[in-house]
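Re: [help] complex structure
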Amino acid sequence: GAVVSQHPSWVICKSGTSVKIECRSLDFQATTMFWYRQFPKQSLMLMATSNEGSKATYEQGVEKDKFLINHASLTLSTLTVTSAHPEDSSFYICSATPNSAGGAYEQYFGPGTRLTVT
Amino acid sequence: AQSVTQLDSQVPVFEEAPVELRCNYSSSVSVYLFWYVQYPNQGLQLLLKYLSGSTLVKGINGFEAEFNKSQTSFHLRKPSVHISDTAEYFCAVSEGDGNKLVFGAGTILRVKS
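Output below.
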């Protein structure tokens, strides 16, 4: 149980275009979903926290107009990288927290999406 | 603010040898501690977590970690490693409701035959 999927697993786009990445909790409802960014050989950096039906909370330094997050349902959150540039190339990972009371400390991670902007 | 330090960026070890991956954290409040493993081009998988209670925590794949509050450490250990344990290991900490995770820089464990 507690499987999180991401789509696509990898994407190449041209500079100036927008890319949407989906994060789905397959067998549980997720109150909260998180979006992380991981540069090569570096750790995960939290970009934003999204709760179903409300606006995402962005970490300091993350441009909310560039990284649009929509958490439309309890099983789906999307991250749209708008007007992508080569410096946005990275590995994007989402995680989800179950609704259950004891689940506040569990984050289940998706397999990640590798974005390359040319 | 919280921070996590993983002192070793890479740890090479021979198969069947014991291993310890070090993790220290800084926080002004009580914390919850986690170890995750990441295989190449994959997401993170939870190895183990400390929320409260016994300071020795056992996880999957034969790993265990010990929470030491006085030394603000949460080192990960395995008595005998396998080739399949080769991966990157991340220590993470959260405060309060345990939702936001702060990750260390990661330690690459390379198991050699």
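Chain B is about 0% helix and 55% strand.
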